[in-house]
Amino acid sequence: MSYKRIFSLFVVVLGLSLSANAVFAQEPVASPVSAEAAPAPAEKKGINITELVFGHVSDSHEWHWFSLKNADGTEHPYASPLPMIIYQPGIGLSVFSSSKFEEWHKDADGKRISNVYNGLYIEKNMKEKVLAVVDGSKVYDLSITKNVLSMLIGVFILLWAMTSAAKKYKTDKIAAPKGFQNAVEVLVIFIRDEVAKPNLGNKYLKFMPLLLTIFFFIWINNLLGLLPGGANFTGNIAVTACLALIAFIVMMANSNKHFWGHLLNPPNVPFLVKCLLVLIEVMSLCIKPVALMIRLFANMLAGHIVILSVICLIFIFALMNVYVGGGFVIVSLAFSIFMFMLELLVAVIQAFIFANLTAVFIGQAIEEAHHDAHGHEDEAIIL
Amino acid sequence: MNTIMLAGDLAKAGGAVGAGIAALGAGVGIGQIGKGAVEAIARQPEAMSDIRANMILTAAFVEGVALFAVIAGILAIFV
């Protein structure tokens, strides 16, 4: 019962903080085309597809909902500012709202530069970077950006859902599962029987919390990214790098002598082949977490970019001819609905694959030596 | 007749062509997976759900490899 109240309180606080100072926070931004020197062909009459698409998939210090055109043709962005937490060695911690950076102009390279506040300004190329006016001084940006807030929302949803399901088991251990517990049971048993037990053998219980967390965390954040106005959290390489790093650390921490023995000294192998094999094995040891990282990142980013591009096609066609644009809406909608369905599938599959591969790698690291009783176990049985 | 391709444009062309070839590879790969899966189901219809699960898992791996190449293409265009 207390979780429901905490959740409602959270929703109220979040809603108030985002909406109260948000909606009219920004000055109108001049239409991005006129000063652009970039060679993109979509530049012709006013849609910068690159900026649109990458603005949606990259991180930012505010949560941008939509932009409306003013009477004079400029765009008025409606965005919720997020707290900025900047640490500068020598000056200390500064915490302020990102609505302080409201005037943007373009510099010579085509990057957008914000106004200066407190000796700091934001430079927005593909990603937003906070820089200090004094050249070269270090700025540590610890802000709650859009991705961080999306992660916190995902974490909160995960905690609330799982702890409320777990509480029911504490109060009555042998009652039949009710409601949400059913879904949680199906998923947990699926992870236990298809992912953990086959790969980890009888030591699976120790790693079940990790595998379950990885699976649900990635799944929930993938789904949150698909909502309209959602943040592209798992399509950010820093995020997937951290997840892969965690998997790698667990794998290394649980590796045993048998694993390292086989890695550095493969048995029953001629010497020259052994040299080559050791090199390949060590490389693959590092490449496996990198592959984990890139797989999740690429799948999520590609999905978002395809959906955004398909919708932007409407506007590209509309620039040619309004009626062609209007007619194309049907095609674009159909294709983007198909892509959304595919992305729903990809969300759960990529979460499953990440958890599965983590289990496989940990299983490889904790494998014990097979004890052949007589040295020959695979002899064919001749009847 | 001199055709000059600027270095930046060549990079973009290379990135796009690379991503296209990767899509080719992914198509062939996932097609093979589908073929094997459908034939296996035809031979043993009781194993359908096992086969289907393995097919989807393997298809995701192959797609992952194709997306590595897409990322390389994106890097070529923007970096």
Description:
The complex is a heterodimer of chains A (383) and B (79). Chain A has 383 residues and is an alpha+beta fold. Chain A has two domains: 2-144, no CATH class; 147-366, no CATH class. Chain A is built from nine helices and nine strands. In chain A, the strands form three sheets. Chain A has a four-stranded antiparallel β-sheet with strand order 5-6-7-8, with no helix packed on it. Chain A has a three-stranded antiparallel β-sheet with strand order 4-3-9, with no helix packed on it. In chain A, strands 1-2 form a two-stranded antiparallel ribbon. In chain A, helix 8 (271-320) runs antiparallel to helix 9. Chain A is globular, with a radius of gyration of 26 Å. By secondary structure, chain B is an all-alpha fold. The radius of gyration of chain B is 19 Å and the shape is elongated. Chain B contains two helices and no strands. Chain B has a single domain (20-78), classed as F1F0 ATP synthase subunit C (F1FO ATP Synthase). Chains A and B meet through helix 8 and helix 9 of A and helix 2 of B.
Q: Strand-residue fraction of chain B?
A: under 5%
CATH class of chain B: Mainly Alpha
**What is the chain-wise order of helices and strands of chain B?**
HH
The secondary-structure element order of chain A is: HHEEEEEEEEEHHHHHHH
Distance separating the two termini of chain A: 66 Å
Largest interface: A-B, 17 and 14 residues
The spatial strand order of the largest sheet of chain A comes to 5-6-7-8
- The helix count of chain B comes to 2
CATH superfamily of chain B: F1F0 ATP synthase subunit C
Helix content of chain A: 55-70%
Tell me about the largest β-sheet of chain B.
none
Largest sheet of chain A: 4 strands, antiparallel
Q: What is the 3D form of chain B?
A: elongated
